[in-house]
Amino acid sequence: MEQNSKSSNPMIALSLIRLQNEEKKIKEKIANRQFPANIKITPVIENNSKNLFKWNLEIKGRGGTLWEGGTYRFLIEYQDSILKPPIVTVLNKEFRHIHLYEDKKVCLGIIAEGLWNAETPLYMIATEIEDLIHREPNLTSPADYKLGDIYYKTPEEYDKIIKEVAKSCQ
Questions:
Q1: What is the CATH number of the domain that holds 80?
Q2: Do residues 80 and 6 lie in contact, with contact meaning Cβ atoms separated by under 8 Å?
Q3: Which of 26, 60, 64, 149 fits a 20 to 30 Å CA distance from 10?
Q4: Cα separations (Å) of 152 from 61, 98, 121, 142?
């Protein structure tokens, strides 16, 4: 759906203004070195114009971690307004993570239905996803139960799997 047709709805128009401000904030944070250097976030270009309801997110694995060397690509997509949580999907076919559902949707508290706060800034979603990749998995709420089981029972096998993921996502 093009932004011109979306802007006729007042809530969608307000969401668009908010997302335009989000883009400015992200650019300011990058310019002032207040944004992690391993994260790149840009609006999706469709029909030669920005679609601020869709964002490309690219995260480079932190040095010294199992994820090092990989570049992980996500799509953050708002569904018509910022009142609903965005859907975050992994674009790397090979990517696996304990907090990633089989349909490639990210399991993350701040974007969960019922926990979503429409005031949550886009840059915070991006940094939370980056942190989710690198922090110790929460085994009480895995999205990928098989990978969670491997992590719990044979940590060395889990490490091997994640290093292969990083290698395949270069």
A1: 3.10.110.10
A2: yes
A3: 26
A4: 22, 11, 33, 11
